[in-house]
Specification:
This protein starts with 6 loop residues before the first helix and ends with a strand. It folds into 4 domains: about 5-285, Neutral Protease, domain 2, CATH 1.10.390; about 290-330 and about 365-465, TolB, C-terminal domain (Neuraminidase), CATH 2.120.10.30; about 475-615, Neuraminidase; about 730-960, no CATH class. By secondary structure, the chain is of the alpha+beta class. Strand 4 and strand 5 (about 100-105) form a beta hairpin. The protein is globular, with a radius of gyration of 32 Å. Helices cover about 15% and strands about 40% of the residues. A 16-stranded antiparallel barrel has the order 33-34-35-36-37-38-39-40-41-42-43-47-48-49-50-51. Keywords: Signal. InterPro entries: 6-blade_b-propeller_TolB-like (IPR011042). This is WD40-like Beta Propeller Repeat.
Length: about 950
Amino acid sequence: MELIFRLKALLLSLLLLSTYTIAEAPSDQWQTITTKLYRIHFTPENRPWAEQLSKSADAIGQQVAKQVDYQFPYPVDIVIRDPLNQANGFALPFVHRARTVFYSTPPLSDSVLGHMDDWGELLLTHELAHLNHLARPSRNATSELWQALFPDLMSVPRWAIEGYATVIEHRQSGKGRPANAKVNAILKQWAREGYLPSYQQLSGNSDAYLGNSMAYLAGSAYLLWLEQRCQGECLPKVWARLTAVESRSFDDAFDGVFGQSPQQLYRRFSAELSHQAISDETSWPVNPATLWFSHHWSLSTPALSPNGDQLAIITYDQKRYRQQLQVLETAANTDAKTQWQQQQSAFIKADPDDVAAVEPKVFNPKVLKRLPNQQGTMVDPAWLNQQQILFSHQTRQQNGFWAFDLYRWDLSSNQTTRLTTGAGLRRISPHPDGKRALALQRKQSSTHIVEIDLTTGKLSRLREGRQGEIVDFPQYQPQSGRISYLLHRQGHWQLQIGIDAPINIQFEEAVSYLSYPTWLSADSLLLTLGDQQGVASYQLELDNKQRYRLSSFEAVAGGATADDTWLYLVDTTSQGQRLLRQPSPIAPTSDGAAMTAVALSKATPLKVTLSAPQPKIAATANSTPYGLGPQYTSLAFGGQLTPWQHSLEIGVKGGDPVNRLRWQLLTHTAVDGSDHGILATTRWQGWPIALTGDLLYQQQDFGDINETALPSWDQHWLSGHVGGKYRRQVGPNVNWQLGAGASATTIWSQQPDLDDGESASAYLFGDLNGQWRSGIYGLYGGLTGRSWLGSSSGTTELGSDAGNWQRHDLGLHTAITMGEWAVNAGYQHKQLQQTPNYWHQFRLGGIDSSLDVPWLASGQLNDAALPRGYLSGDKLERTQFGLGYGIAKLQYRHYRIESHGQKQTLGLYRLDLDLIELDAMTFDALPEFDGTKIQLGAGWSDDSPSNSQNSPDFSAWLSVFYRL
């Protein structure tokens, strides 16, 4: 439920709009349910969730407002989507116009979000806490003006933003992350290792494992500790001081309530948590598990091959493209140990006074096979047989959705086969016959149990999802033919065996974490439980209705798998996850203890019932068609700065939160008087074909621009345009777009040798883009084309009368990536034909502004390293090569421009910075920033163009502009 901690920097920088197709498209059949405080917008697939949410939304909103001590006074728009097939959401706390976006896919049992009453209510509580906390208007006039333009995130650190919303989610239900045993076990583990984040790292540390999650986990724990220390509702007092007439920083507001700085008190909190965590160690028996596989970052649940000699696991690190599905040998890696010993002996032999290193704690097992990540995320490996592994892979669908689909990896041929498309499948569990498998299907807010025919890919639903319920980990119970699964209902996870008249196994109230059930036999299974003591793996014996703890609380151990010899556990530490191994459990002993290397616990009885109550079904809420939706309006500011251009842009923008309608009215003024204009644009995406309409007035006086090749040009034009485009995704790696439009332009000039004229044209364009990725390597490519047919009056470049004309643009680009590095190349060809008037002639140079619209065939071709009109002609070719790392891209561009047989060439070097984009879903809810673009870079020429006496010196540029 990320508020997006980078949002303040990104919004303040007015960053780029992603062009990816969204999941629930604006053209879908959106509906709205209106309550006293909220407008809930949804598509038909999410109707049950929206209706359920609407029943409790007002009551939750009032309760949250009471806790925060502020009620947001305007209607809040809630947009419900399912773009990623994962649980998430975010809030946009604009003063007077706040809104939030909910992802309806619920969290699963292994998530830190899994301890809750209801997913929609938890999400609503968290995001409303953000809105009431951060959209409170300041009583300081200067701050109030700032808040009118941007979300006021600058004054509050991220740990306090996310930590406070997490505190409110806990207060609302007594559950949430602060009450989740997994969260508390993680914090204590970090404390025992002396690795709690520093105060400076508390708001986010992308270099540390779970570093960016600590704003939620440690931030909420710190705030709860502060309130306990304060013995009262002290946090609302901090927010009141922060919005006072007297301007204060967060530290000043905090110090005025708690008497010390947040940094000082956080050190005390860390010391107390560390003391408590280390004190717990005295009550633990010896841990029977030993380190077997060391890894930095995270791991999937391991899966043992049928004969136990291999183990499949997915490794992750902070660079998502390095994700791998690996097959490990379960035998000890004696070769690695021997090699290390020989190396140490060589050191001592070469230098007898040297001291041999301490032997590593583990020599990682041999990696027999590797399958690198393609695109998206791989999860849940499961062996189909000794030569084939099933896994889920998050893949982009044709309509722009991301969904988890089922894949099969054949180890002998090293080939992968996709078995489903857009199915939303997780938790694969093959049947012993090898012909079918169970899976969890997540579609919008519902979770279903399905069975897959592995030959045809056909799905059969065995248990239909029910509103208010979440299911997880469906599995075949050995020998019985029944299906087991975890069920979350009425605020608790429980184990169910059987679909019709199921056996219901419940756990005591103190168990706040339940996940990873795995059958050992028909009457015995492993699972992971968490309570106040910690998180551990347990063995359940159904015949005597007892459970036994197998792992020590010394490790945050879960996701167990076992055979007759070994039990493998995923252990979570501050450095990432790793695999532990200990002797496998065999059976309970006579005194009720588990038979392992060390008896860790006595038996605990299970609560077993034969039936389960059904959830209440919410009454149907009234809804209305979305139509144009609620409209938001804001001021827009931009401008351009180069050695030759100094301009300012100001206007208004608006639109709705699902991106059906966007509009903008912008003015552009150059300080030196060389360029003025007004642009009005409307974009409608309520149908499958997106429509745009534009009206543009612009005046350019090239005589005021230094180093231009067209000093005598002084031109004005008024253009109107209508156009449409259609975009589709073809599989996970290719998308295409087609569009067409028409425009009419009136042109006039005060130059005596240039007649006034008119131009009417129609155009057709298309682009095709594809990408392929395997591990750290990627290949990207694209083809674009645009053609105009038009008729003009007035003067041509050569002084004759204009007539019919054509223009054809073609572009190619490709890039090869290796991790953060990229090598790219591109080619562009643009050509005018027949007799266009002078206004259509190509004019190279200048930086992009809001007035440089792609549908206009005015001949303006921008390159920020050159002044406007630096070169001109009727045919242009550009070849470019580049090398990039991260956001920096170094390019060489070579231009060749012709004017009636006269050729000129020019080479340029450029350094461009591509700033990080907000995702498309964020911008759908942000009409204030839709179409915002930034260009930032520097460039220089390698020589003067042929037939020219001047060459531009080193230049740098910055442009903030808007393009819908």
